[in-house]
Amino acid sequence: MALEQRLMDVERRIAEACARCGRDPGSVNVVAVTKYVSAAAAKRAVEAGMRHIGENRWPAAEEKWRLLEGRAVFHYIGSLQSRKVKDVIGKFDYVHSLDRLSLAEEVHKRAEALGIRVPCFLQVNVSGEDSKHGLAPEAVPAFVSSLGKLPGIRPVGLMTMAPIVDDAEEARPVFAGLRKLLEEINGMSLSDEPLTELSMGMSGDFEVAIEEGATWVRLGSVLVGHEENDG
Ligand SMILES: *Cc1c(COP(=O)(O)O)cnc(C)c1O
Question: Where is the Alanine racemase N-terminal domain (predicted)?
Answer without folding.
Answer: 27-226
